[in-house]
Each structure stands twice: as C-alpha cells, then as structure tokens.
C-alpha cells in the first residue's frame, strides 16, 4: 500500500503541484502552501480563481478576483506578472518562451517574456485558455465554440463553431486535435486539419478535469462514476470508438484525473476523497488513498514519477508515495 503524508488546510484546493520537487498547494483564498522543511505559506491573489502549472519554468501561474496574475516560484517567491483592472481573471495558461495567457471578461491577453501584452477581444466571455504544444498559438473557449489566435502575428483568427457554452479547452500533445469541456454534460472536439467535429457525450455530470496520456494516445476525463478515457490513436480521434471506463465505483463520481508522465496509467480522484491508479491496457487498479473528507480537486505527478500531490474541495491535501 502506498504511503500518504496528509496536510489538512481549511479551504478549497485549486491546484497541487511540485515546484523543484517541493509540493505546493494553491487555495481559493489565494494562499499557496508548501511542504518545505515544514509547512510554509505565501499569499498570491486576493481570491484565486485559476491556477496552472508552468512545468518548463518551475512556477505556478495564478489569476483571481483581484484582477491580477501572479507567478509563484520555489521558496515562496511571488511576482505580479499582469493586471486587468477590476475584471476578474478566471482563466490562465502557460506557453512557450515564458509567455502566459489570461482571460478577463471578453478579452484574452498574452504576455510575452519581455513584458509586452497583446489583447484579443471576443463577443462573449473568455472561459478557458490553452497554448498549442508547438509554436505560439492559443485557443480560447467561449460561448458557441473556440477561437484560435497566433499572438506573435496579426493574422486572422480561426473560428471553430459548436452551439453551447464551452468552459475549458485543451490541445492534444501532437497539436492535431482541440477539445473543449462544455456547460452541458459533454466534451466537444475538432480535428484541426479539416475542422471535423468530434462529439463526446453521455456523461452524467459536467466534465471538470481532463488529462492527456504521455504520448497523447488517450484523453482521460472526469464527470462519471468512472474515468472516461477516449482513444486518440486514429487520424479521426475517438470518432466511432468507445471510450475505456476505468475505476468504476458504483455511483461515486470521478472528480479529477491525472495521467502518469510516462506509463499508460491514470490517477483517479473521487468525490469521496479516494484516489486510485488504473492501467489502460487491462484496467488493473491499485488503491492509492482511502476515502477522505472532500472531493478530489487537484492531482499532479512529480517528475520522478513516484509521488502524487492531491488536494480536495475542503482542504484535505497530501502526498502519496507510490514506491513505499
């Protein structure tokens, strides 16, 4: 049985990551806690709404109700990167060459390494942001679809339309597909070469967590009493193919997923706080953590692939060591 080192904090955990191998937990009140020779805390946003792990630059990017974007680096170094006045920043993304993106109201902003900021306006609120895996390109999730921009140029954006509210967005690791979470219980996707649609529906709840497998062959998702894992090996993605259903536990909903950095394995967090690992090939399961106090809201593997940081909706956090 893996060992669990718990950290109980009062509040909602938005992100749990490793910065220079030190576990960091970002909370909705803007506090970022870390386990670094004891429990230490720094303050980022006044009301934190979004946080993303910038692995390439060993930092956590946060945005919040105070209209500010912060970088949190190892040893508690906090730096304000951008501000959007009184508008809430509800989406952030980390890109190449230390670029970041953030959404405030109907505008998406890209801040380049040199501090220059470029604004992209949209007819409706910016709900989600993602950088493409190669090149300087961003995707914006919005009402009735997604928009693709090339921030380094003044080229015309690409509009991908699909009726409904799109709340989050992700590129496949090879850059061939774009997938959005929706306000309804579904995912929607586009094959970027020809804008062919991909409908991924049938979920009993909203999908709030997505994770690509190491080589991008699979996309794991929450929103059901199992991790729903869509196959993306074929040129048309999952169309015409059934997803895997891993870690089914009666009516207990999956709330968070995190694919292993190199193996075809996914860590699955549930609404009752349990965490398991499941293998794609044969659906074999290993329990990593027994049920806790709240729904799992954050899961991240460390670079050594032996520890898993987790956080919950009620501050029930910790580190799972799978080699113990």
UniProtKB/TrEMBL annotation:
Alphabetical list of Pfam families matching this protein: ANAPC4_WD40
Anaphase-promoting complex subunit 4-like WD40 domain residues: 261-322
Keywords per UniProt: Cell projection, Cilium, Repeat, WD repeat
Main subcellular location of this protein, as a coarse class: other
UniProt-annotated location(s): Cell projection, Cilium
Origin: domain of life: Bacteria
Protein name: WD40 repeat domain-containing protein
Provenance organism: Mesorhizobium retamae
